[in-house]
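Question (not urgent): is this output format expected?
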Amino acid sequence: MNFKKISTLLIILNCFIISGQGYVGVKAPFINTSFDSFKAGESLKFRIHYGFFNASYATLELSEEVLNNEKILKATAIGRTTGLARFFFKVEDIYETYFNKSLVKPLKSTRNIYEGGYTKNTETYYDYKKDVANINDKKNSKLSTVKIEKNVQDLISTFYFLRNHFDVKSLKINDYIRITIFFDAENYPFRMKFLGYENIKTKFGEINCLKFRPYIESGRVFGDSESLTLWVSNDKNKIPIKIEAGLRIGSIEADLEEFRGLKHPFKVNINE
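Got this back:
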């Protein structure tokens, strides 16, 4: 059992497999929709497991806050290993992102993590006039400024940006959504391939889903592209239902365990 891979999947799960803004000159099915797929009070919980072996849980919660006299949304993502996985490789990850409601652009991000002895505690502020991110490394008492791509998203805001800004009806099989993310002081090119539609059996019943294959360029933080598959509800909510990371033997899976506060009705086919 690869416990390090569990922490990687937790990172990916916490940010809905990442997101960002389409590259100039590259076709991406984005539309000018704003604040339609979610609302404050939404909460999602996922169970990450290897077969029947529970490895960890991850949650995503959305609340309304005030930042610089502006009403904004705060997204909090928490990932923790549990049971035997926690004994071998303890993970305690907390990510917070503050973003404006209309454009879903990150204004402030915090990252406080513990992964098998590795710790990090950072605070990032985004300056879109200068296209830079100002990073406060609290652990090492270090300030730095890093250039960011135009209209970049961070790990957590990307989840909400994609839900509001891609047109499901325009997607065709084998289409790519090409975007950029900013993570750990680096800009990462990312693409996500649309594989089609599939009905997924869950604890709630059968859910019609959009199926994607995410790819991310390897770098200092992320290794080579993993064998990942993502299923998203084919409705106005567009929430992740299932994530699968292939291993040499079997796979690690993340399944939607609980949900509340969705903005739109959640359609589930219940088989008697």
